[in-house]
Design goal:
Length: 76
């Protein structure tokens, strides 16, 4: 595994998050897009269509262990 040093004016963000289905509790680790929000995700276990909760920009912000990269950047 190699580690890259980010440019001086940028910050490294987490890009993997464990998404937990609110319907059945199934959890899966997913790669998050770094330049966009994911509005919909189908649970692989129960096939529920996950959507962001009111006030959240994406399913990772609502059901993930880590907020999406755009929100990480906004809070930095």
């Amino acid at each position: 595994m190699t580690c890259a040093i980010p440019p001086e004016n940028s910050r490294a963000f987490l890009t993997r998050s464990t998404l937990t289905c609110p319907e059945c509790g199934h959890a899966e680790e997913l790669e998050m897009p770094t330049d966009a929000c994911l509005f919909f995700h189908e649970c692989r276990a129960c096939h529920a269509m996950l959507r962001p909760q009111p006030g959240d920009c994406c399913v990772f912000c609502s059901y993930g262990s880590v907020k999406c990269p755009p929100m990480q950047q906004a809070r930095a």
